[in-house]
Structure formats: C-alpha cells, structure tokens
C-alpha cells in the first residue's frame, strides 16, 4: 500500500463528505484523531461542533433554519473509559452502549447499517481508539449499501494493533461529488500523522473545499497519561 498525502487527498476532492483520521504522532507519544463534516445543502451547512463533556456534538448554528435534524444532529465523539469513539452519526451512541455492555466494536454495529438517505445511502463510518497501560490500538468500520443497492449491507472492519509512529488511516463517506454520491471504496487510506497538532489542524482545515467544509475536530491523546488536547474549527462563527 502506498502512503498518500492527506493534504493532497483533501485538496483534490471537492466532496469527500465526512471523514475520520486515526493514527499515532511521529514521536510516538500521541494517539491522534480528526473528524470533519462537509455539506452541500443549507441544512447540512447550518451546523457547528461544540464540546459536550469529554466528547463533542453537532448543533444547529441558526436554530430557526434547522430543517430535518435526524441525520445531522448527533454526538460524533464520545469517551467510554479508556476508549474514544468517533463516528459520522448517532451510531456513536450505539457503539458506546454496546461496548458498555461488553460487546465488541464490531458486535455493537451489527444493529446498524448505512443511512436511510436514498439514493446516496451514505455509509456509516466509525472509529474506536483504545489506550491502556501505555499501549494503543484502534479500529475503523464502514457500513455501506451493496453498490447502491439498499437491500444488502456490506460491513467492513479494519483493526490496527500497535500502530506505527507517524502513521494513520483515513476513511471518508464519498469517493467524490456526484448525484447520487458514490460511497467510499477500499480499505482506509494510509497517511502520515505529524507531531504538531496546530499544524495538523491548519493543514486539514485549509485543505478542505472552501465552499463545502463545515466543521473540524482534532484530538491528541497522550498515550502514557490519557490526557488530551482538543481543537475545534467551525466555519460558522
């Protein structure tokens, strides 16, 4: 597999949709994640990320313009003990509740499938980061329609044990813009993860399509201590 430039991947794609990046910083000290949302409709663009306990949630920037909240208002990030859950929908809660009952990440998602937003049938993408006693591993999942056929759900889970410093993976909902929007294909993309959180945040935000980007979340978690730092960037201020 070829390591791709995350900056290039974003700059060359006007509409990757929603995206999750998970990996380990180059110095090996931090577990790193980023989550971004984009929007083509006024309803999708009318959002901001706000902190909610140890996680975040989406909220309407202008509540008077909120149309259908069902697929756009959710908690993308929640923390369950030493696990950080990052997803593009309310399956964050499904994973949280399942793992709280001793189900695995994969088992928790068995009750869910892609979003009911035909003809796009947006994939549900999810990530889980597990930090314990100075060790770190993560997994990513995508639930998607069978090549646009909503009668079948294809489920893929990718687990990364003992991730290598400076490396991470990137998964997003759509291959590119289109009508209908084509679902992501293949395994998560192999990308580099830097030490500098500010530079990483700036690169991600500046690389996302100016017209379509909505919000960005970045978190660096100290693998030794579990302490973390969070950055949120919202287009709507």
What does this structure look like?
- This protein is mainly β.
- The protein has a single domain, classed as Glutamine Phosphoribosylpyrophosphate, subunit 1, domain 1 (4-Layer Sandwich).
- Helix content is 15%, strand content 41%.
- The protein has five helices and 13 strands.
- It has helices spanning 6-11, 42-45, 91-100, 105-108, 197-207, and strands at 19-24, 30-38, 47-52, 55-60, 77-80, 83-87, 124-132, 135-146, 149-160, 167-172, 189-192, 213-222, 228-234.
- The strands form three sheets. It has a six-stranded antiparallel sheet, covered by helices on one side.
- It is globular and about 45 Å long.
- The termini are far apart.
Low-pLDDT regions: none
For the secondary structure, the number of strands is: 13
Rounded mean pLDDT score:
97
Question: Strand order, biggest sheet?
Answer: 11-10-1-2-12-13
Number of helices: 5
Q: How many domains make up the 3D coordinates?
A: 1
CATH class: Alpha Beta
For the record, the CATH architecture stands as 4-Layer Sandwich
| Strand residue percentage | 35-45%
Helix content: 10-25%
Order of helices and strands: HEEHEEEEHHEEEEEHEE
Structural classification: mainly beta
CATH topology: Glutamine Phosphoribosylpyrophosphate, subunit 1, domain 1
Q: What is the name of the CATH superfamily?
A: Inosine monophosphate cyclohydrolase-like
Major pleated sheet = 6 strands, antiparallel
Give the terminus-to-terminus CA distance.
Answer: 39 Å
What integer value in Å does the Rg equal?
A: 16 Å
Shape: globular
């Amino acid at each position: 597999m070829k390591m791709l430039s995350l900056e290039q991947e974003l700059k060359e794609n006007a509409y990757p949709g929603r995206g999750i990046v998970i990996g380990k910083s180059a110095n090996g000290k931090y577990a790193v994640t980023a989550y971004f949302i984009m929007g083509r409709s006024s309803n999708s663009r009318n959002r901001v990320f706000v902190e909610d306990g140890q996680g975040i949630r989406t909220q309407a920037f202008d509540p008077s313009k909120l149309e259908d909240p069902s697929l756009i208002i959710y908690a993308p990030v929640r923390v369950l003990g030493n696990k950080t859950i990052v997803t593009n929908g309310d399956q964050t809660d499904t994973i949280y509740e399942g793992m709280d009952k001793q189900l695995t990440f994969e088992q928790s998602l068995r009750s869910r499938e892609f979003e009911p937003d035909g003809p796009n049938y947006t994939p549900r993408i999810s990530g889980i980061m597990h930090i314990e006693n100075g060790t770190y591993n993560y997994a990513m999942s995508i639930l998607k329609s069978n090549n646009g056929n909503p009668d079948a759900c294809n489920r893929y889970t990718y687990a990364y044990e003992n991730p290598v410093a400076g490396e991470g993976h990137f998964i997003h909902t759509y291959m590119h813009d289109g009508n209908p929007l084509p679902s992501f294909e293949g395994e998560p993309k192999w990308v580099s993860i830097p030490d500098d959180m500010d530079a990483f945040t700036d690169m991600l935000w500046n690389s996302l399509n100016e017209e379509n980007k909505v919000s960005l979340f970045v978190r660096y978690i100290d693998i030794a201590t579990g302490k973390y730092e969070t950055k949120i960037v919202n287009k709507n201020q």
